Amino acid sequence: EVQLVESGGGLVQPGGSLRLSCAASGLTFSMSTMRWVRQAPGKGLEWVSTIFRDTTYYADSVKGRFTISTDNAKSTLYLQMNSLKSEDTAVYYCTYGDGYDYWGQGTQVTVSS
C-alpha cells in the first residue's frame, strides 16, 4: 500500500521558516516525480515545486524562498520554506508519480502575525 504522510506544518509569523516533510512508503521512492502542491483557503490547487532525481522546478511565487529536496535513504521528501508570507497560507500536499498518482493527506501552514 502506497502511503505519503506529510508533517511539519504549523503557525509561523511572516518572515519565518518551516520545513515540511513527506514520508513515503510502499513505492520506489527515487524512481518517479515528486511534487508539492498547495491549496489556499477558498482557492484551487496550486503547484509549488517538483523534483525528479536531481532536477528541481519552482513556481515563480516561491522561487528563491522555498527549496525542495529528498533523502532517498529515508524515503522522505522535504520542502524548506523561508521568508514566509501570508499568501503562503495553505494546506500543503506532497504527490508522487508523473501523473500526480498518489497524494498525502496534507499539512496546514498558516502564516500570520
**Low-confidence regions:** none
Radius of gyration: 13 Å
Describe the sheet with the most strands: 7 strands, mixed
Question: How far is the N terminus from the C terminus?
Answer: 40 Å
Percent in helix:
under 10%
Based on helices, strands and strand pairing, what is the structural class? mainly beta
- The helix/strand order is EEEEEEEEEEE
What percent strand? over 45%
Number of strands: 11
Per DSSP, the total helix count is: 0
Overall residue-averaged pLDDT value:
95
Shape: globular
How would you describe this structure to a colleague?
Helix content is 0%, strand content 53%. Strands 2, 4, 5, 6, 9, 10 and 11 form a 7-stranded mixed sheet that branches. It is mainly β and 113 residues long. The mean pLDDT is 95. It is globular, with a radius of gyration of 13 Å. The relative contact order is 0.32. It has strands spanning 3-7, 10-12, 18-25, 34-39, 45-52, 55-58, 66-71, 76-81, 90-96, 102-103, 107-111. The N and C termini lie far apart (40 Å).
